[in-house]
Amino acid sequence: MARKKKQITLCADDFGLNENINLAVCELAAAHRISATSCLTQAGAWPSGAQRLRSLDIDIGLHINLTEKLGPDNDFHRPLSRLIMNAWLRQLDPAVLARSIEHQCDLFEQHAKRTPDFFDGHQHVHQFPQIRDALMEVLIRRYDCDDFWVRSTAMRNASLARGLQWKARLIALLGSSALRRRLQRIDFPYNEDFAGVYALTGGSARFERHMQAWLAAAGERIVIMCHPADGIDPTDVIGAQRAAEFAFLKSDAFADLLATHYCRLVRYPT
Questions:
Q1: Rounded to whole angstroms, how far apart are CA atoms 23 and 163?
Q2: Global pTM?
Q3: Rounded Cα distance, 162 and 143, in Å
Q4: Whole-number Cα distances in Å, 148 to 27, 61, 207
Q5: Judging by beta carbons within 10 Å of its beta carbon (0-12, 13-18, 19+), is residue 177 exposed, middle or buried?
Q6: Mean pLDDT, residues 214-243
Q7: What architecture (CATH level 2) is domain 6-265?
């Protein structure tokens, strides 16, 4: 009897941030080496990149940004550490948060000519207090919940296989459980497991070791994030690792790894 393959949603984050990322995402999507991408719609490379996404059979989501300037029309952004403090102290203005999220939705729809398949947050901000409330309010008002999913950062088997490193533990503590409970209460679709968290250093070899562990431990309905780019942007602090991830994801070694662990890359089933 043939063994059933595990279905993995592999999501490339930060589409639109620069042309190197856009090129990598489009190449990997065309080669069926990723199955989703999450987009920074305020960034300069988003409008031109969005046109190239329209013909690709992948999930295309909104990567909500509240921590970087990115473009001239972004009137709300704060450094991550300050945003975390303000959110936990309930010092953010709900109306400002909702307006920023709405604007990013508008930019997505303007250039992609469609609504997002899913929603998540740049640096996982969508799970923070107040921000998750603003996001849910916008989604309820604008969209049909049958047409999208929300990325949960709650980690189970796949991330635990790597020891739930300090970075993964911190992300979990910053609101993953609360976000998941909220999604359950309002019956929004979300992924059952999440992986892809590591120090974003170490080149292709380290990324390959992590990917092997994530795929080996993955269950159904998992989303694994990645950050590929076709070239190194010297202004990007993780630019070198982005290029290393891209080199591995397009290699025969990655195809072999998927086959070894009986994995198939798919769009997320809502």
A1: 33
A2: 0.94
A3: 36
A4: 24, 9, 29
A5: middle
A6: 94
A7: Alpha-Beta Barrel (3.20)
